[in-house]
Amino acid sequence: MDPNKITETLQSEIENGTLAPGTTLKQERLAERFGVSRQPVRQALERLLANGLLTKRSDRSLAVNGLSANEARELSQIRISLESTALILSIPHLTQRDLRKAIRLNDDLFEEEAPAIIEELDIAFHRTLYAPCDNGRLLQMIDELRREARRSYHRQPPGSQARKAFYEEHNDLLAVCNLGDVSKAVEIIEKHISITSRQLVEHPENGAPQ
């Protein structure tokens, strides 16, 4: 296996939360896992370090980097601005068909176990509500920023309070969209995104709820 494939695999695992922030990556274990020498593993780790996905500790070990509180706050601010704009533009044009589709997606999301599928369902749910804004560039930017927050889906296992709250926030958003209440919808999406932002910087080793 070449360094490119190793880099792609590890990057995917970091981004989807399989490798949690703070996880130490050891060359010898990765070499054994991928069935290669340490050299391609070292090259892959150097690329991940250069891309900001890993951090070098004082003992020279490499660990998975997480978003800092400031980075999560910045991401949250941008998302709130973009998604609020999309809601303001789309709500006057939402149809009952759009809302029924969003309800089905939210119900599927509530039962799903795989974080990667939860991510796709969540993106589809919000895109369904935002699509009538008729601004393709805005929708694309929202999708991309939502993928940056994918680690939060690992904090919402089925049956958890986090999953229930996630589901209920979606239902609250659906209810006010159905009423055409733009200001309340914006209020709910601000709260919804802010909670996700906090989950991005809560690490199990810091006592974050599971």
Automatic annotation (TrEMBL):
SUPFAM superfamilies: GntR ligand-binding domain-like, Winged helix' DNA-binding domain
Lineage of source species: Bacteria, Pseudomonadati, Pseudomonadota, Alphaproteobacteria, Rhodospirillales
InterPro entries on file: GntR_C, TF_FadR/GntR_C, Tscrpt_reg_HTH_GntR, WH-like_DNA-bd_sf, WH_DNA-bd_sf
GO molecular function: DNA binding; DNA-binding transcription factor activity
Superkingdom of origin organism: Bacteria
Name by which UniProt lists this protein: Transcriptional regulator
Source species of the chain: Thalassospira xianhensis MCCC 1A02616
UniProt keyword Transcription, yes or no: yes
Domain HTH gntR-type: 1-67
Keywords linked to the UniProt accession: DNA-binding, Transcription, Transcription regulation
